Amino acid sequence: MSSIDKIAVLPFTRSATEVAALRRVAEQWQREFKFWSFDETLQVLQRSICKAWYIPCRDEHSINIAAIVIVDIGPFEAEVLYIFVDAGYRAKGLGRHLLSWLVEHLQTVCAVEALFLEVRVSNTYAQRLYEQVGMQKIAMRKKYYANGEDAFVYKLPIRH
Ligand SMILES: CC(C)(COP(=O)(O)OP(=O)(O)OC[C@H]1O[C@@H](n2cnc3c(N)ncnc32)[C@H](O)[C@@H]1OP(=O)(O)O)[C@@H](O)C(=O)NCCC(=O)NCCS
Description:
Elements: E1 10-11, H1 16-33, H2 38-46, E2 50-58, E3 63-73, E4 77-85, H3 94-109, E5 114-120, H4 124-132, E6 136-141, E7 151-157
The chain binds coenzyme A.
Protein backbone atom coordinates (compact mmCIF):
# COMPACT_ATOMS: atom_id res chain seq x y z
CA MET A 1 0.00 0.00 0.00
CA SER A 2 1.26 3.51 -0.74
CA SER A 3 1.20 6.28 1.83
CA ILE A 4 -0.99 9.25 2.70
CA ASP A 5 0.99 12.06 4.39
CA LYS A 6 -2.02 14.07 5.45
CA ILE A 7 -5.61 13.85 4.28
CA ALA A 8 -5.74 16.32 1.40
CA VAL A 9 -8.86 16.61 -0.76
CA LEU A 10 -8.06 17.67 -4.32
CA PRO A 11 -10.33 18.58 -7.24
CA PHE A 12 -10.17 16.07 -10.09
CA THR A 13 -9.00 18.26 -12.99
CA ARG A 14 -8.64 15.53 -15.64
CA SER A 15 -4.84 16.03 -15.84
CA ALA A 16 -2.92 13.15 -17.45
CA THR A 17 -1.66 12.00 -14.03
CA GLU A 18 -5.17 12.03 -12.56
CA VAL A 19 -6.68 10.23 -15.56
CA ALA A 20 -4.04 7.48 -15.24
CA ALA A 21 -4.86 7.18 -11.52
CA LEU A 22 -8.60 7.11 -12.32
CA ARG A 23 -8.02 4.23 -14.77
CA ARG A 24 -6.36 2.19 -11.99
CA VAL A 25 -9.13 2.86 -9.48
CA ALA A 26 -11.92 2.33 -12.06
CA GLU A 27 -10.45 -1.09 -12.88
CA GLN A 28 -10.80 -1.92 -9.18
CA TRP A 29 -14.47 -0.90 -8.90
CA GLN A 30 -15.25 -2.69 -12.19
CA ARG A 31 -13.81 -5.93 -10.77
CA GLU A 32 -15.62 -5.46 -7.46
CA PHE A 33 -19.01 -4.11 -8.55
CA LYS A 34 -19.31 -4.45 -12.37
CA PHE A 35 -20.03 -0.74 -12.23
CA TRP A 36 -18.99 2.06 -14.63
CA SER A 37 -16.03 1.27 -16.85
CA PHE A 38 -13.14 3.74 -17.02
CA ASP A 39 -14.48 5.12 -20.35
CA GLU A 40 -18.01 5.54 -18.95
CA THR A 41 -16.60 7.32 -15.90
CA LEU A 42 -14.62 9.74 -18.07
CA GLN A 43 -17.77 10.46 -20.10
CA VAL A 44 -19.72 11.18 -16.91
CA LEU A 45 -16.95 13.52 -15.74
CA GLN A 46 -17.03 15.47 -19.01
CA ARG A 47 -20.55 16.78 -18.32
CA SER A 48 -20.42 20.38 -17.09
CA ILE A 49 -22.48 19.73 -13.92
CA CYS A 50 -20.25 16.84 -12.83
CA LYS A 51 -17.42 17.43 -10.36
CA ALA A 52 -15.12 15.02 -8.56
CA TRP A 53 -12.74 15.29 -5.63
CA TYR A 54 -10.23 12.75 -4.40
CA ILE A 55 -7.82 11.90 -1.62
CA PRO A 56 -4.42 11.11 -3.17
CA CYS A 57 -1.91 8.52 -2.03
CA ARG A 58 1.61 8.15 -3.34
CA ASP A 59 4.10 5.38 -3.92
CA GLU A 60 7.61 5.82 -5.32
CA HIS A 61 6.37 5.63 -8.91
CA SER A 62 3.05 7.43 -9.13
CA ILE A 63 0.16 9.23 -7.52
CA ASN A 64 -2.90 7.07 -6.91
CA ILE A 65 -6.46 7.70 -5.77
CA ALA A 66 -7.19 6.44 -2.24
CA ALA A 67 -10.77 7.74 -2.29
CA ILE A 68 -12.93 9.59 -4.79
CA VAL A 69 -16.39 11.16 -4.80
CA ILE A 70 -18.22 12.01 -8.04
CA VAL A 71 -21.07 14.51 -7.77
CA ASP A 72 -23.59 16.25 -10.04
CA ILE A 73 -24.07 19.82 -8.84
CA GLY A 74 -27.14 21.56 -10.25
CA PRO A 75 -28.56 24.98 -9.37
CA PHE A 76 -30.71 23.68 -6.48
CA GLU A 77 -29.56 20.16 -5.70
CA ALA A 78 -26.42 18.05 -5.67
CA GLU A 79 -26.34 14.27 -6.11
CA VAL A 80 -23.52 11.92 -5.18
CA LEU A 81 -23.17 9.60 -8.16
CA TYR A 82 -20.44 7.50 -6.58
CA ILE A 83 -18.10 7.38 -3.62
CA PHE A 84 -15.33 4.80 -3.63
CA VAL A 85 -12.45 4.07 -1.28
CA ASP A 86 -9.60 1.84 -2.49
CA ALA A 87 -9.97 -1.54 -0.78
CA GLY A 88 -6.57 -1.12 0.96
CA TYR A 89 -7.72 2.11 2.64
CA ARG A 90 -11.22 1.22 3.82
CA ALA A 91 -12.45 1.56 7.40
CA LYS A 92 -9.77 4.18 8.14
CA GLY A 93 -12.04 7.21 8.03
CA LEU A 94 -11.33 8.33 4.45
CA GLY A 95 -14.92 7.91 3.20
CA ARG A 96 -16.24 9.95 6.15
CA HIS A 97 -13.55 12.61 5.66
CA LEU A 98 -14.33 12.97 1.94
CA LEU A 99 -18.11 13.12 2.41
CA SER A 100 -17.84 15.58 5.33
CA TRP A 101 -15.54 17.71 3.19
CA LEU A 102 -18.12 17.63 0.36
CA VAL A 103 -20.94 18.71 2.69
CA GLU A 104 -18.85 21.62 3.98
CA HIS A 105 -17.95 22.58 0.41
CA LEU A 106 -21.62 22.58 -0.60
CA GLN A 107 -22.48 24.71 2.45
CA THR A 108 -19.80 27.30 1.83
CA VAL A 109 -19.18 27.43 -1.92
CA CYS A 110 -22.38 26.26 -3.65
CA ALA A 111 -25.96 27.53 -3.51
CA VAL A 112 -27.60 24.07 -3.49
CA GLU A 113 -30.36 23.40 -0.99
CA ALA A 114 -29.96 19.64 -0.63
CA LEU A 115 -27.65 16.68 -1.28
CA PHE A 116 -29.16 13.39 -2.47
CA LEU A 117 -27.89 9.91 -3.21
CA GLU A 118 -29.10 6.38 -3.83
CA VAL A 119 -27.57 3.31 -2.22
CA ARG A 120 -28.20 -0.42 -2.49
CA VAL A 121 -30.34 -1.74 0.36
CA SER A 122 -27.63 -4.37 0.95
CA ASN A 123 -24.82 -1.79 1.36
CA THR A 124 -25.08 -1.28 5.09
CA TYR A 125 -21.49 0.09 5.46
CA ALA A 126 -22.28 2.94 3.08
CA GLN A 127 -25.65 3.58 4.78
CA ARG A 128 -23.90 3.92 8.16
CA LEU A 129 -21.44 6.36 6.63
CA TYR A 130 -24.25 8.49 5.15
CA GLU A 131 -26.10 8.55 8.47
CA GLN A 132 -22.91 9.61 10.25
CA VAL A 133 -22.72 12.79 8.15
CA GLY A 134 -26.38 13.56 8.94
CA MET A 135 -28.12 12.17 5.84
CA GLN A 136 -31.62 10.74 6.27
CA LYS A 137 -33.32 7.90 4.46
CA ILE A 138 -36.34 9.45 2.70
CA ALA A 139 -37.55 6.87 0.16
CA MET A 140 -37.00 3.53 -1.53
CA ARG A 141 -36.74 3.01 -5.29
CA LYS A 142 -37.90 -0.49 -6.19
CA LYS A 143 -35.67 -2.50 -8.56
CA TYR A 144 -33.44 0.56 -9.11
CA TYR A 145 -30.29 -1.43 -9.97
CA ALA A 146 -29.65 -3.59 -13.03
CA ASN A 147 -29.69 -6.78 -10.93
CA GLY A 148 -33.17 -5.91 -9.59
CA GLU A 149 -31.97 -4.69 -6.20
CA ASP A 150 -33.89 -1.86 -4.51
CA ALA A 151 -32.26 1.47 -3.57
CA PHE A 152 -32.70 3.69 -0.54
CA VAL A 153 -32.74 7.42 -1.29
CA TYR A 154 -30.88 9.61 1.21
CA LYS A 155 -31.16 13.37 1.61
CA LEU A 156 -29.24 16.03 3.51
CA PRO A 157 -30.64 19.58 3.60
CA ILE A 158 -27.75 22.00 3.05
CA ARG A 159 -27.80 24.94 5.47
CA HIS A 160 -25.88 28.05 4.42
C1 LIG B 1 -18.66 2.59 1.75
C2 LIG B 1 -17.26 3.23 1.74
C3 LIG B 1 -17.27 4.46 0.83
C4 LIG B 1 -16.93 3.66 3.18
O1 LIG B 1 -15.68 4.32 3.19
P1 LIG B 1 -14.60 3.98 4.32
O2 LIG B 1 -13.46 4.93 4.18
O3 LIG B 1 -14.29 2.53 4.26
O4 LIG B 1 -15.46 4.30 5.64
P2 LIG B 1 -14.95 5.06 6.96
O5 LIG B 1 -13.70 4.43 7.46
O6 LIG B 1 -14.94 6.53 6.72
O7 LIG B 1 -16.11 4.67 7.97
C5 LIG B 1 -17.30 5.41 8.10
C6 LIG B 1 -18.36 4.53 8.70
O8 LIG B 1 -18.83 3.58 7.75
C7 LIG B 1 -19.10 2.33 8.42
N1 LIG B 1 -18.13 1.33 7.94
C8 LIG B 1 -17.17 1.52 7.00
N2 LIG B 1 -16.48 0.37 6.82
C9 LIG B 1 -17.00 -0.54 7.65
C10 LIG B 1 -16.73 -1.91 7.92
N3 LIG B 1 -15.75 -2.57 7.29
N4 LIG B 1 -17.49 -2.53 8.85
C11 LIG B 1 -18.48 -1.89 9.48
N5 LIG B 1 -18.79 -0.59 9.26
C12 LIG B 1 -18.06 0.07 8.37
C13 LIG B 1 -18.92 2.60 9.91
O9 LIG B 1 -20.14 3.06 10.45
C14 LIG B 1 -17.91 3.69 9.87
O10 LIG B 1 -17.88 4.49 11.04
P3 LIG B 1 -17.10 4.04 12.36
O11 LIG B 1 -15.71 3.71 11.93
O12 LIG B 1 -17.18 5.24 13.26
O13 LIG B 1 -17.84 2.86 12.88
C15 LIG B 1 -16.16 2.22 1.28
O14 LIG B 1 -16.25 1.06 2.07
C16 LIG B 1 -16.25 1.82 -0.19
O15 LIG B 1 -15.65 2.46 -1.04
N6 LIG B 1 -17.01 0.74 -0.51
C17 LIG B 1 -17.15 0.31 -1.89
C18 LIG B 1 -17.91 1.30 -2.77
C19 LIG B 1 -19.25 1.64 -2.18
O16 LIG B 1 -19.95 0.79 -1.64
N7 LIG B 1 -19.63 2.92 -2.30
C20 LIG B 1 -20.89 3.44 -1.76
C21 LIG B 1 -22.04 3.23 -2.68
S1 LIG B 1 -22.02 4.33 -4.03
